[in-house]
Amino acid sequence: MNKTIRISAALVLRPNGDTLLVRKTGTQVFMQPGGKIEPGETPVAALVRELREEIGVEAEAAGFVPLEHFEAPAANEPGHVVKADVFVLQIGDVPLHPSAEIEEVRWISPEAPGNIRMATLTEHHILPFYRQAVRVQRD
Known about the structure:
By secondary structure, the protein is α+β, with helices and mostly antiparallel strands. 23% of the residues lie in helices and 35% in strands. A hairpin with a 6-residue loop joins strand 4 and strand 5.
């Protein structure tokens, strides 16, 4: 039986449409910034805290737009499943300061991410869902 981890994640977007991915220290895969929701914490409050701790971004709760709920195998914890509340956050060209457990940050195009190893949640759920939503808006 898999153990469940509740997380909150952000699809952080720049005006040019690129999205931010992060890689934790000692890991190989990139994922959306975010993290575990602490007891008594709302998903948005968890994101505000995690973005400040992980990449030095000060975000207001009102800036997060709900995207969807997803479930996928945890990228860095075998035998665990993540249940993710995912939100969109639009930001400008603010400086990022990777800290805490974040070793690397990378901006990618959601349409053409390139040859980058991504967490299942990112590669097979969040980015495809977002790409489809953008296509629907265009049509």
